[in-house]
Amino acid sequence: MTGEEVKEPKEQQEVTEAKEPEICYKAIVLSGVGGYDKVKVEVKKGVPALKSDEILVRVQACGLNFSDLLVRQGAFGKHHSLGTECAGVIEAIGDLVIDRKVGDKIIMMNIDGGLWTELVVTTVNCTYLMPDGMSFQEAAAISVNYAAAYMMIYDYANLRPNQSILIHMAAGGVGIAATQLCKLVHDVTIFGTASPSKHETIKENGVAYPIDYTTLDYAEEVRKISPKGVDIVLDPLGGADDSKGFGLLKSLGKLVLYGSANQVTAPKRSSLAAAKVWWHKFNIDALQLINSNKAVCGFHLGRTDPDHVAEVIRKLISLYKEGKIKPKVDSVWSFEQLRNSWIGTCLLIVPMLLVLQMNDPE
């Protein structure tokens, strides 16, 4: 046969490849410093990049601390982010990671923040394995508050049997942790300041003498029961309360300063409140300190040696396993609730331990 062969074109079947849906995750971020309106829920796309020595964590719950309120108000500058403690499940590990595995439930702490997010990348040394029986909510509330309380009470104040202590904001996260840790020492008398609605709660936690700081002079109330004062004062208030706490100390007493809550009087940072705290700031020279026979300590968890912090958190996990401490979570808030009502309003009245729930609990 000669001539050009004509072939029928083959029917082309259109194949549509199914695209895998792009992974998205939510994060709580600050759009700026100021009021509640600066807190936003942001949807991020893609899985965070993972280096060979890092792990990827699916966050289940995040702790909400007083420091987050200060970050939002800009007390630490404009470049800090929210969330210093969380708990979750490891979803992926880098090639060089040998002491963690996918599926491990972990406690995580990062003083620099950034943990209010569903997915987070970190290194192993920022994480601790959750003990059996611990909930994600408890795990998200144990590292920052309990580590701070532990170091102030034992490293600084050296609490001993038969001593007395005044814990300000006893219904707050650090206050609850401090109360439980004080109870591990024999015959310690605990005074605690809180609003009247929280007195029953702090008594159940171990405070022997709740004091209504809203209507009473707490120094006078302490001296009615202990005329010589107390051995230790844990003071997160600042301003005039620093001097007041120093005056309450017995000989060889210790005042531990770890905050300036008196500056927080409104949703936005108040220049007037800051100025008032500065005006009433505590001043004492070396000779006065020697003659008073007392000690003043300043504590900042973020300025503490990370190896020591890790050692303390491991001790706290052991204490939890032994049933000697247990975080008391005040309330749990979801992303959806955050969209409608900023939980920072709760922080203004200094609640117990608050937790953000990232996903449905198991």
In brief:
The protein is an alpha/beta fold and 362 residues long.
Features:
7-stranded mixed β-sheet, globular, 12 helices, alpha/beta, 6-stranded parallel β-sheet, 362 residues
Kindly describe this structure:
By secondary structure, the chain is α/β, with parallel strands linked by helices. Helix content is 28%, strand content 25%. The protein is built from 12 helices and 15 strands. The protein has helices at residues 66-73, 136-139, 143-156, 173-182, 199-205, 218-225, 240-247, 271-279, 286-292, 306-321, 335-340, 344-347, and strands spanning 24-30, 39-45, 54-64, 85-93, 105-109, 119-123, 127-129, 164-167, 189-194, 209-212, 230-235, 249-257, 295-298, 329-334, 353-357. The strands form 3 sheets. Strands 3, 4, 5, 6, 7, 14 and 15 form a 7-stranded mixed β-sheet that branches. The radius of gyration is 26 Å and the shape is globular. Residues 11-16 and 342-352 have low confidence and may be disordered.
The main pleated sheet reads as:
7 strands, mixed
**pLDDT averaged over residues:** 84
One letter per element, helices H and strands E, the order comes to: EEEHEEEEHHEHEHEHEHEHHEHEHHE
Q: Assign the structural class, choosing from mainly alpha, mainly beta, alpha/beta, alpha+beta, or little secondary structure.
A: alpha/beta
